Amino acid sequence: MKPEIKALIIDDEAMACDMLAYQIRRHVPAITEVKKCTGAKEGIQLIASWQPDLLFLDVQMPFMDGFDLLNVVDQHSFSVIFTTAYNQYAIRAIRHSALDYLLKPVDVDEMKQAVERFLKNRQKESRISELYQNAVQQLQHTEKQPKLTLLTPEGIRLVKPGDIIYCTGVNNYTRFYLRDGSAITVSKTLKEFEVLLREHGFMRIHKSFLVNLSCVAGIDSNDSLIMTDGSRLSIARRRHADVIRALRKSESQDPGQGI
Known about the structure:
Helix content: 25-40%
CATH superfamily of the largest domain: Response regulator
Number of helices: 8
Largest sheet: 5 strands, parallel
Distance between the termini: 61 Å
């Protein structure tokens, strides 16, 4: 017998609540019960009394936004899929914190994929409240290098982008090589991290390599990058000119870096 999965929608827009509830009931049979409310106060009461498994939570609401609501709830026995109109700061925080979100208006296929990820990972994220706390910190802090949340089989690791030398990708896994000599493997594709780390000075030099340009020590005679930890990484032929251009630009911005 399949377990019952209860979903709660909290959104100050009644029409958005109704539409999402309709989409869930029609397209996601795995969710057996759906409730909805249009205010954070009512949502907090429902979380306590009804104890949902999954929360579709609007980021921007009057009086109390989605992150404020999560701060009020002491224990997170549920998972969250944030729903939001485009807000670059909220999305940046959510992405860096390894959380899921849907842009409004919600696309049915994206919603189904988000629920599938919830079903796949619900048993693994026992420390999920830490992910929410990290997302709140990402929103509150204006530091140039927010921490990246990496979900590993051993638990959660928070890593500053500047501490990553390079990443390698194989199939659906990415391995991070850090300045302290350690390495971390997570079950996400290199492409996902390429999008996240691009703004922090990282560049895809090959289908298998994503590098921190500030950690490039030089180029050898085979046109491979020499990283500060001694690793040598091949540059894809079609990316060669772009890589050289990016390195020159990086060097001009940081004269202390020698290429």
